[in-house]
Amino acid sequence: MSNLYSVILAGGSGQRLWPLSRKKKPKQFLSFMHNESLLQQTVRRAVCLSKKNSCYVLTTSNYQALVNQQVGKFCERILIEPAAKNTAPAMILAAYTLVQKDPDAVLIFLPADHYIKDDQLFVETVSHAVDAAQKDKSIILLGVDPTYPATQYGYIAYVKNDDLPAKVLQFHEKPNLQTARQYLEQGYLWNSGIFIAKAQVLLDEVQIYAPQLVEAILQSCAGD
Which residues contact 184 (CB under 8 A, 6 or more apart)? Predict the structure, then answer.
């Protein structure tokens, strides 16, 4: 699919995995279970989904050298955030940048710090999500079946039926332990942070619900 782009979000500081993960080298640049860093594993999966020249890494200037060192030969396009402002502004920046290049762009947003055991199953799952995003004006989010009552993850309440993609009812941020146990009993999913959407659909939705955020991003782009 010529209008499919992978956007890897690699600007996080990785505070949860301290002391292994440090500000100068956060967890996405560390190796776990393999000889590859989490970022390198993410890029490898991304190029199975979109072409090499359609794979972008979004990071900050602090980590640009590390990104180049680890994945420069596999992912030639690096977007630099003006400032680290978490996931939503990073996604808006990428969508705004890529919709200028390709008005029909479909984006796969991938956090750079995930460990995924079954690459083939992951690629198949994301491919189905891409098909859904192409057909509908929807933002698709991958949910994960929880294995324990985690207090460091967000949760998704959704309509439980046989139709996929299921409709999201509500997002819940990191709960305390008692609430996390209740979420598991109610069948909630972990929020993976993996989103798939047409760039313009994403921008249109953000313009409705957080127009000030879009304005701030456009001003930062204009100032570069």
Answer: 146, 148, 149
